[in-house]
Amino acid sequence: MDAFSTPDLTDAAPASRAIELQFNSYGGVTRFAGPAVTIKCHEDNSLVKACVGEPGEGRVIVVDGGGSLRRALLGDMLAEQAARNGWAGLVIYGAIRDVDEIGNTALGVAALGTTPLKTEKLGVGQRDVPVSLGGVTIVPGEYVYADNNGVIVSAESLL
Is 96 within 8 Å of 14 (Cβ atoms)? Predict the structure, then answer.
C-alpha cells in the first residue's frame, strides 16, 4: 500500500469525513486502509469471528460496538486469523483484549480501549449495514483510512 497520512488525505480531499473519536492504535500495523465491511453488535463478537474467517482481500472491518468498554470485541486469536486471511485492519468502536499479542500481529487495529473480559457469543448483530460512529455514517464499500492521527472515511478511493 502507498504510504499516506490522514491529515494529507483530508487536505487533498475535503469531502472525506473524520470520525470524531479518539482511537488508540493496537495492531502491529499502524497505518491501514481499504474498503469497509461493517458490523453492528453489542458485547457479542459472533459476527466479528465469522467475518475474520473469510478472505479479507485488503478490506477493513468497521465494528460498531456502541462504544462499550465492558466486553472485548477482538482478541489475539481473531486478530491472528484476520491477518492470515488478508484483512488490512479493524476499526472498533469498543474494546479489545490481548493487546500485547495483537501488537505483534501484522494487522491494523484501532479501538477505543481495552478490557480483559470476552463477549458472549449469541449470534446477535447485523452485518453490511450502515453504521454511525463519531459523527460519521459508514456505508459498506466506502474507503476507510487509519493512522496514528485518526480514522477517515471517503466514498471514493483517495490513493
Answer: no
Q: Which residues are annotated as a binding site for Mg(2+)?
A: 98
Q: Binding site residues for substrate, as ranges?
A: 75-78, 97
If you average pLDDT over residues 49-69, what whole number do you get?
A: 98
Q: What is the dihedral of CA 24, 25, 27, 29, to 10 degrees?
A: 170
What is the CB neighbour count within 10 angstroms for residue 70?
13
Torsion sign across C-alpha atoms 95, 96, 100, 105: negative
Annotated binding site: 75-78, 97-98
- For residue range 13-24, what is the model confidence (pLDDT) as tens digits? 999 999 999 999
Domain segments of the chain as ranges: 6-148
Q: What is the pLDDT of residues 60-115, one digit of tens each?
A: 999 999 999 999 999 999 999 999 999 999 999 999 999 999 999 999 999 999 99
**Beta-strand relationship, 60-64 and 89-96:** parallel
**Contact assessment for residue 130 and residue 119, using Cβ atoms and an 8 Å cutoff:** no
Fold of 6-148: Glucose Oxidase; domain 1 (3.50.30)
